[in-house]
Design goal:
With 212 residues, the chain is an alpha+beta fold. It has four helices and twelve strands; from the N terminus they run αααββαββββββββββ. The protein has two domains: 43 residues; 138 residues, no CATH class.
């Protein structure tokens, strides 16, 4: 058996301890690098977004829009006018809708050149059945862009019906005696009131006159 000097044994043990320390340091460094790389990978990885279901066309709104203007009285209305009218279905805390009654549909829409610009305009009444009240809208045309726009709106505490009169018609305006209107206009009739709505080309606004 080989004899080992005590000093040699001490040197051997010291070398083993040194090797263990170096190994532990290396393992620690490797684990630290792995942890850092994994963290960096998580940060740089693009975030996954929840897959959205394919869009399904909701035909309910389309059917609703068609029902709103289903009567023949509204057959001349173009798509842009219908869209504009639907956007005006709420005012002063009250919701309004186009009538579904065929007979009433005949008395809540009329046409004419209401602002004297050479383009045909439309006036239409929307109702609130619960409150039994109406909202009058006059849709005119932008002569430059040909786009429709809301030129006049008025809410009434009663349900009204309307009809158009042509320029040259006699209506009461600035005096008690009927005068000749120089422009097309609208007659609005409620239970206890009759009104004429006429565009004033000088003041550039619609004015309302009581009719006897």
């Amino acid at each position: 058996m080989e004899y080992n000097h005590p000093s040699s044994l001490n040197k051997s043990k010291s070398g083993q301890k040194y090797l263990l320390v170096i190994t532990a340091i290396v393992i620690t460094i490797i684990l630290s690098c792995y942890w850092l790389l994994s963290r960096t990978g998580e940060k740089n990885r693009p975030q996954e977004t929840a897959s959205l279901p394919p869009m399904i066309h909701d035909s309910t709104n389309t059917r609703q829009a068609d029902n709103d203007f289903s009567h023949s009285a509204f057959s001349s209305l173009d798509t842009k006018t219908k869209k504009l009218l639907r956007a005006q279905n709420y005012s002063d805390g009250t919701a309004y809708a186009i009538t579904r009654h065929a007979e009433r549909a005949q008395s809540i829409i009329c046409y004419g050149d209401f602002d004297a610009d050479g383009y045909k305009d439309v006036a239409i009444v929307m109702d609130n059945e619960d409150k039994q009240c109406s909202r009058l809208l006059i849709i005119c045309t932008n002569t430059a862009t040909k786009e429709k726009f809301l030129a006049f709106s008025e809410n009434y505490s009663d349900k009204i019906k309307i009809n158009a009169f042509q320029k040259g018609s006699k209506i009461i305006m600035n005096s008690e005696s009927p005068e000749t209107s120089a422009i097309d206009g609208i007659i609005a009739i409620g239970e206890d009131v009759k009104l004429a709505i006429v565009y004033d080309t000088h003041l550039q606004k619609f004015k309302t006159f009581y009719q006897e």
